[in-house]
Amino acid sequence: MVRTTTIEVDGRSLRVTNLDKVIYPATGTTKGDVLDYYLAIAPTMIPHVAGRPVTRKRWVHGVGTADAPGEVFFQKNLEASAPSWVHRQDLAHRDHTNTYPLVEEEDGAATLAWFAQLAALEVHVPQWRFVDDTTARGKVVHHPDRMVLDLDPGPGAGLAECVAVARLCREIVSGMGLDLVPVTSGSKGIHLYARLDGTLASDDVSAVAHELARSLEADHPDLVVSDMKKSLREGRVLVDWSQNSGNKTTVAPYSLRGRERPAVAAPRTWDELDDDLAQLGPQEVLDRVARIGDPMAVAGTGEGAEDRLAQYRAKRDESRTPEPFTSSGRDAGGPPTFVIQDHHASRHHHDFRLEHDGVLLSWALPRLTPSSTGRNNLAVQTEDHPLDYGTFEGTIPKGEYGAGTVTIWDAGTYQAEKMRDDEIIVELAGRPDGGLANDGGPQPPTFVLIRTDAEKRQWLIHRMDKRKHRESLRRRGLLPAAGPDDGAPPEPAQDLRPMLASPADAVVRRDLARAGADDSPWALEMKWDGIRAIVTVDPDARTWSVRTRGGHDVTAGYPELAELVDRVHVPAVLDGEIIAPGPDGTPDFSRLQTRLGLTEPRDVERARRTAPVELVLFDALRASGQDLTSLPYTQRREALEMVVDAGGTIQVPDAVTLPLEDALAVSEKLGLEGVLAKRRDSVYRPGVRSTDWRKIKHAQHTDVVVVGWRPGRGERTGSIGSLLVATRTSDGLRYAGRVGAGLSDRDLARLEKKVEPLAADEPIVGDVPAAESRDARWLARGLLAEVEHGGWTGSGRLRHPVWRGLRPDLTASPDGTVDA
């Protein structure tokens, strides 16, 4: 029985369950103990995670034991069921968008408590933060404000060896003018953190850390290794530099660890790093913080980080040059600015500058600003400049840095299509008499900047013709061909039925062993435990609709999916699955049951509070008025990712690149149904169950028809005891057995309301054994449902069936003998 209570954290109410559940069996540490630790450490921990997207590592059923470890999974996306006060931020990746939770000063303690409620023991964050940026009208990714070195001992090495390597690292990093703070990781090794000033991109920091690791390996080959290969790590310590990548995360300082015994990633002092060093538990960490404070404070929280203009000022003498040294404020509501300056220095060049994050990002263009799409010009990134440089014209005196005459070639505002550490795409709006409007280049002037060498800060700049680029995408089949209906509202999808997958038997599974590999003809996707949905979206008219596999319009039942009109860029018809995540984020079909068949707004809103849904999209059938079903799967997936800006309640899952058996293992750990294998060259065949798509489930699911029920005994006296079910065949209904397992009190109450008006004297199926029909109550019309089972007996009965729920989304029989 679930034991529930509500706690108050800084004015926020949080519903928590089963606080006496043991999470660490070796010590008897409970969920309540985990929650108490995070509440106590919150004031110290929050400054180190604030502004950073959190990836959680969860042990829903506890960490287990050494012989039987508990199941664990990483969770990036914020659940739709998350409390509204949890801060969140979207992060666009190359092919999808994730919505991450943030632990901010405001509501941070309550958010950590919510993590504990979900058994998210470990909190992982990157070395960079989101920062407010008026030029982007929201939050943007800032350069990293800290560097981390992860000292990971190989077999035969331990903390003593990590201490020795830590001292070697400290000696080198001190010579760079940086201080290192050691953190015993709570696992096997030590993390070393250094505060940075935010002027270097993630790739630059990774390059520095990598070079440091290689240098240590060269000087101490018997102690240090910089290569990740496990075969090289015997008796040595890996200096893992890779966690400085913008795509990587590290367990946060003061986070618990999901080991056999509870331990903490604990900041330490250098005086503590001796041969007796040990990992610390949560109470030891709390006692230390109360006694000596936070050793990590020296590594900084990002606030007060060194001025990003320090390098600019270091190169100039304010008393000798007319160049500006300030960044005056500007209209926070206006678009970001750009300037291209014609610089007659020792070598004539253009300076290309973009306002971003409170400074002007700057590049020198030795071959000037490209006026055609025919070539890529070198762009050398220089130091950030103050915003006031955007209006600077004048002569820099001889002998000063950049000596020569500077004039403005063009200036104005820009719109960023992409703003990443390694790639930038901007559309510029310059002056009517400026250089861009009169250089003969394609309009509107759009430039792509691509980093080619992280260590030397070299980029290429390319002038893009947006019209030709769009035509190129159309020729490759990634956008529909232009025509009179281009951009027209999508045709109604009531006649479209989803394409269905055929089961994969043992022989087919052997053939699919390499599915998911780049050179395999098969792609893999996770199989979601929900109901299939064909959605029609017209973002221009701000209309949307949802139809089930059986063609039923259920739009009114899922108001949260109205987010589609903001997430889908063009009129489209898309294929996906509606899921209802449970408290642990896993799709919960029984929870989804409470949403099925509801149409009245009051009923929908009530159910929505306890069972919010999400839409997982995996195919595009129409876009901009064009039919995409004849395109191969790979091109439809690319089109889907182009037209959908995933996030919030609308998700586009990543492709699965693991071998089939590994993918199945991950799917099972995540509580999903299984995996789908789809031929990369397969077209979309509406309404067809095709062998081009194969489903591999952890358990078998079958659609059944409830034809009657038997009264209950014991605890179910006076209610339904079991259901009598049949399957539909080409010859009509065939009896398939009884189902009693899996029926919850909520299921029984709902079924009683359904069966009462359908009572009949005779069954609608004819082959029910006498022993099972003796006290049966029959239905005049069957109810569509779904069960999970372990196969079939020789007589055609379900083996060990378990109730999953009614399926009103499926198609009813034309003769009326079955109700949807």
Describe the structure.
Residues 606-729 form the ATP-dependent DNA ligase family profile domain. The protein has 15 helices and 46 strands. It is of the alpha+beta class and 820 residues long. Among the domains are: 310-464, no CATH class; 500-697, DNA ligase/mRNA capping enzyme (D-amino Acid Aminotransferase, Chain A, domain 1, 2-Layer Sandwich), CATH 3.30.470; 700-819, Beta Barrel (OB fold (Dihydrolipoamide Acetyltransferase, E2P)), CATH 2.40.50.140. A hairpin with a 7-residue loop joins strand 25 (394-396) and strand 26. The longest helix has 19 residues, at 31-49.
Strand content: 25-35%
What is the mean pLDDT?
A: 85
* Count of DSSP strands: 46
CATH superfamily grouping of one domain? DNA ligase/mRNA capping enzyme
- How would a crystallographer describe the biggest sheet? 8 strands, antiparallel, barrel
Q: Give the CATH architecture of one domain.
A: 2-Layer Sandwich
Based on CA atoms alone, the radius of gyration comes out at: 31 Å
Summed up:
This is DNA ligase (ATP). Among the domains are: 310-464, no CATH class; 500-697, D-amino Acid Aminotransferase, Chain A, domain 1; 700-819, Beta Barrel (OB fold (Dihydrolipoamide Acetyltransferase, E2P)), CATH 2.40.50.140. Helix content is 18%, strand content 33%.
